[in-house]
Design goal:
The structure holds 2 protein chains of 2 kinds.
Chain A lengths: L1 E12 L2 E13 L4 E5 L6 H9 L6 E11 L6 E3 L8 H6 L4 E4 L13 H12 L4 H14 L5 H4 L9 H13 L5 E5 L7 H18 L2 E6 L2 H7 L2 E6 L2 E7 H6 L4 H9 L41 E13 L8 E14 L4 E5 L6 H9 L6 E7 L4 E3 L5 H7 L3 E4 L13 H11 L5 H14 L16 H13 L5 E5 L7 H18 L2 E6 L2 H7 L2 E6 L2 E7 H6 L4 H8 L38 E5 L5 E5 L10
Parallel strand pairs in A: 3-8, 3-9, 6-7, 7-8, 13-18, 13-19, 16-17, 17-18
Antiparallel strand pairs in A: 1-2, 1-4, 4-5, 9-10, 11-12, 11-14, 14-15, 19-20, 20-22, 21-22
Chain B lengths: L1 H27 L5 H11 L6 H10 L6 H13 L5 E2 L4 E2 H36 L4 H15 L2 H16 L18 H38 L2 H8 L4 H7 L1 H30 L6 H9 L3 H29 L1 H9 L2
Antiparallel strand pairs in B: 1-2
Helix pairs in contact in B: 1-13, 5-6, 5-8, 5-11, 6-8, 7-8, 8-11, 11-13, 12-13, 13-14
Classes of the chains: A alpha/beta, B mainly alpha.
């Protein structure tokens, strides 16, 4: 139905043509799902834009054909030859081919209602009266799972959650019943349980309407669960294409092989390492050393103990005259203990309070109550009681790695200044020492010390994140909090950074608190894992225990929603329900939390804890 | 929405009250009052002073009373439409200002309309044809407009208007209509003269607005939702007006509040150069001679315009942008 032949697209940058696509060919048959896989910059989005005729103004189709069989007219059209703004092309857009974008917030106009935006394509391409159109829109919104479609018609995007916004996008794309749907990273910005529901929805709609799907993604897990055929792209070229089974069972091209080995999976053997697409080498030097064990007097005390920590945010929705406010419990009586030298994983979906908790531990946010004890080997330090000068001293022991490598580095400072800054703040050593130290830090994260006088913008995302790691290590801390350190990185880079963190932990004897929403990443890095939901820790267990015997319904929902890049472990779409797994009032007894229940951490075997209503017995969990 | 509007109007009251206090205090800050400086001036010229008249005025306007009393007298007077007495002109303030205020408003409104009418199409063209010859040309013209001092432009325009169109130099109407009662001919004469000050006063504002509209629209054109609209197959014109232009309007509306006072105060030097019978010159001299009620009424007038402009732009913004209208209650 769609046939792309030797497509080449150029971008004009600074008066010169930069090829974005070279010789791209593939086909999509009616009703089938083709996955376009590749890392960022591989040209997969440009391909979709070329098909839709919505290339940016500085891009141009140089050669090749995009043949599309229009089912309405029965004609075969070459989209590459059409003027993007011509009427026939505009009729194809949304009339026959629709697209869903990655970011559901920015893809919708903030000042138009959902009803207006969803119905627009219908009025453009189909003869529908005003009333009829609104009826069809309402029906479509209901179809994609809006709880109250009639009300949604008059709502604005900012009033909806991320998941509902993406549903609105899907409704908008489907309203004209196109014969081909292009989904450009449709679930990348969403939480894993919502991702599973959206994927299920797309599959159902596809089966129902018999349309073809061109799925663009970098997530091999999504690919293995959704597609019939796979096209792998790299640097604007098609590396490999074929049926899903063949490609996953027997990848031919080195790039795909490398990619498959770079993705963290649940079935990795103990001690098995990921194989990054591009390996880096970390070198330790003389200055940064593993703390000798004999200095630690009290090795059994937990490195970090958090007790009953709570933080409430007061939300004001008022003005001068009315002063309404409500409380949002971001962190609710969280207690945990991190052992010396372990990697403690904290997993949960966006808004569950994991970042707030990490900032409380760092004393960047003051909790309402609770205690944080840091044990430096010889004595316990009450983090909340530190005065300013003590806090400055304490900062040497605990450091932070941030999520976004782009905004975490000051663009006006050279890498040398960035790495040196902690040493200057803490007045450590003279300039010679600092020079030696920064050089060693660069080697430690596998970067060439010659890059020290460059600015952050000349580095890729992965390299920037390594600079962030080096900065966190500059003060030689014992404990590092990693807040989603790889979630902003491409899969191929992810493995590289994860391996680096693992090696550093081993070599320097560090303790990690590792925060992530990605279960596979947590599985790869953490020894013990705490699952957080709605500000509470609902389950805590050693890694294997948690993944093999999850007890809490939320943990189970989370685990069952992860798409595995394995053909042998398909997502059970039937098990994915519309019920909100992250709503504590919906959980079955004895797990339910509705504000009045008193809960307790019930100890199961082998350091496995689960939050249940007070007074429950282990036998209550049998179900 | 109604509650929001009512609340916004209510908040205007304390704002205006505070402004009136500030205005009053600032006018009273220099030592002495108008009568004292008037007496001193007369005496220095060796003229006699009509003690009785001075005494009468002093009592009539409470200048011998404490400041708080004077403020109260001024404030309550204004609420009843009595803006006090101009010592310099020896007339009630309303009579001194009367026509001039109307002409000021006329010129200001005409200037704003001119600004919009010119800036809007040019801004949109520049943004949608970025880096084209048209964009470069119009941008250069705009920068020229920004950089030319108003008074210089005023002089040049006066010359050309006289040489090529035969319009009399200066003023807002032909000489025979000054102080004449209002008539259709007088109005036509005003309209004939009006365009010169409007162009002079409006040029820099227009140039600035073109730049801002272009920048805002360019930002919006990059946004993902515009691509979504394109992907729907919307025709280019409809796409532009429905999505990016609509969002870029926000800044434009937010600007209304600032527009009135800047146009009016920016017009004052031009008014002096072109001897326009507007309020500019009077305000200047009233401030210099401490003619307190006259100056105070002017400043209050400007303040009311500003506060009212902000009110209008706030209400329009709430109508235009649902995030402002609904954001307070549901999203936070």
């Amino acid at each position: 139905m769609l046939e792309v032949n030797e497509l080449a697209v150029d971008f004009t940058l600074h008066e010169s043509a930069v090829p974005a696509l070279k010789d791209v060919s593939f086909r999509v048959d009616p009703g089938e799902t083709v996955a376009l896989v590749g890392e960022s910059g591989s040209g997969k989005s440009v391909t979709s834009q070329a098909i839709m005729g919505i290339l940016p103004t500085n891009a141009r189709i140089r050669s090749g054909e995009i043949l599309f069989d229009n089912p309405e007219t029965g004609q075969r059209i070459d989209i590459a030859q059409l003027d993007p703004e011509s009427l026939p092309m505009r009729r194809i857009r949304s009339g026959n081919i629709s697209i869903i974008f990655q970011e559901p917030m920015t893809s919708l106009s903030p000042v138009h209602t959902i009803g207006d935006q969803v119905s627009e394509a219908l009025f453009l391409h189909r003869d529908a009266s005003r009333l009829e159109g609104l009826k069809l829109t309402e029906a479509m919104l209901k179809h994609v799972g809006f709880p109250d479609p009639a009300r949604a018609l008059g709502m604005y995007p900012f009033e909806l959650s991320g998941g509902l916004r993406q549903r609105a996008m899907i409704a908008m794309a489907m309203i004209t019943h196109p014969s081909l749907l292009i989904a450009d990273e449709p679930t990348t910005a969403l939480d894993v349980t919502i991702q599973a529901r959206i994927l299920k929805l797309i599959r159902e709609l596809q089966a129902e309407l018999g349309m073809a799907l061109l799925l663009i993604t970098h997530d091999l897990g999504v690919v293995s669960n959704m597609s019939d055929r796979v096209v792998v792209m790299y640097h604007g070229r098609v590396m490999e294409a074929g049926p899903l089974q063949d490609l996953f069972a027997n990848p031919q091209h080195d790039y795909l092989k490398a990619l498959m080995h770079a993705v963290p999976r649940f079935d990795l053997a103990p001690g098995e390492r990921l194989m990054p697409v591009r390996e880096i080498h970390s070198e330790t030097g003389a200055l940064i050393k593993h703390q000798p064990a004999d200095q630690i007097v009290d090795a059994d005390a937990p490195h970090l103990r958090v007790s009953e920590v709570s933080k409430t945010y007061r939300l004001h929705s008022g003005n001068w005259f009315s002063n309404e406010s409500r409380d949002l419990l971001a962190v609710d009586r969280v207690s945990l203990a991190v052992e010396r030298g372990e990697c403690f994983g904290l997993v949960g979906e966006s808004g569950c309070g994991k970042t707030t908790l990490s900032k409380i531990i760092m004393r960047a946010i003051t909790p309402d109550q609770g205690e944080i004890l840091y044990h430096d080997g010889s004595r316990a330090i009450d983090v909340r009681a530190l005065d300013n000068s003590e806090l400055l001293q304490f900062r040497r022991k605990m450091q932070f790695i941030f999520q976004d490598p782009y905004s975490a580095l000051n663009p006006r400072m050279t890498v040398f200044d960035i790495l040196r800054e902690p040493l200057v703040v803490h007045a450590m050593g003279d300039i010679d020492y600092q020079r030696a130290m920064t050089t060693e830090l660069m080697r430690l994260v596998g970067l060439d010390p010659r890059f020290l006088n460059r600015y952050p913008h000349s580095f890729s995302g992965g390299q920037r994140q390594r600079i962030g790691i080096a900065r966190a290590l500059a003060l030689q801390p014992d404990l590092i909090i990693c807040d989603e350190p790889v979630s902003a990185l491409d899969v191929s880079i992810q493995a590289q950074v994860l391996n680096l963190l693992k090696d550093l932990q081993q070599e320097l004897g560090l303790t990690f608190v590792f925060i992530s929403h990605n279960l596979a990443v947590i599985h790869y890095t953490a020894n013990r894992i705490a699952v957080m939901c709605a500000g509470r820790i609902v389950e805590l267990a050693p890694r294997d225990r948690l993944f093999e015997h999850p007890v809490h319904p939320y943990t189970r929902a989370l685990l069952s929603a992860v798409p595995h890049p394995e053909l042998s472990q398909p997502l059970d779409f039937n098990a994915i329900t519309e019920s909100a797994a992250s709503d504590p009032t919906q959980w079955p007894q004895p797990f339910r939390l509705d504000g009045s229940t008193r809960t307790t951490f019930m100890a199961l075997e082998e350091g496995h804890f689960v939050r249940v209503a007070a007074g429950s017995k282990p036998s209550d969990l049998a179900a | 929405m109604l509650a929001y509007t009512l609340r916004r109007i209510l908040t205007m009251i304390p704002t205006l009250l505070i402004i009136s206090m500030l205005v009053f205090v600032i006018i009273q800050l220099p030592p002495g009052d108008y009568l004292e400086s008037h007496i001193a001036e007369l005496q220095s010229q060796g003229e006699s002073v009509d003690e009785q008249k001075i005494q009468f005025l002093r009592e009539q306007y409470g200048l011998d009373k404490p400041m708080l009393h004077q403020y109260w007298y001024w404030l309550t007077g204004m609420l009843q439409g009595d803006f006090g007495y101009s010592f310099e002109y020896e007339l009630p303030v309303t009579e001194v200002v009367g026509d001039r205020l109307f002409l000021t408003v006329l010129i200001s409104v005409a200037t704003i309309l001119f600004t919009w009418a010119v800036a809007f199409p040019i801004g949109i063209y520049s943004a949608t044809h970025q880096y084209s010859w048209g964009d470069y040309g119009l941008s250069t013209l705009g920068f020229l407009g920004l950089a030319t001092p108003n008074f210089l432009l005023a002089l040049v325009m006066l010359y050309f208007a006289n040489v090529y169109f035969g319009t009399s130099i200066g003023g807002l109407m032909a000489p025979q209509y000054i102080d004449a009662p209002w008539s259709l001919d007088k109005l036509l004469s005003i309209l004939e003269h009006l365009w010169i000050p409007v162009v002079v006063i409006g040029t820099s504002g227009t140039a600035g607005m073109i730049r801002r509209l272009r920048a805002n629209l360019l930002d919006e054109l990059q946004k993902q939702y515009v691509t979504t609209g394109r992907a729907k197959g919307l025709p280019p014109g409809k796409l532009l007006t429905k999505y990016p232009l609509r969002v870029a309007l926000n800044f434009f509306v937010a600007d209304i509040g600032n527009l009135l006072p800047t146009v009016i105060s920016g017009a004052e030097i031009v008014a002096v150069v072109m001897s326009l019978p507007t309020t500019g010159q009077i305000l200047l001299s009233a401030l210099q001679s401490q003619d307190m009620y006259l100056a105070g009424s002017f400043l209050m007038f400007l303040a009311v315009l500003t506060v009212f402009g902000v009110l209008v732009s706030d209400i329009l913004l709430a109508i235009l942008d649902p995030r402002i209208r609904l954001g307070g209650s549901s999203s936070k």
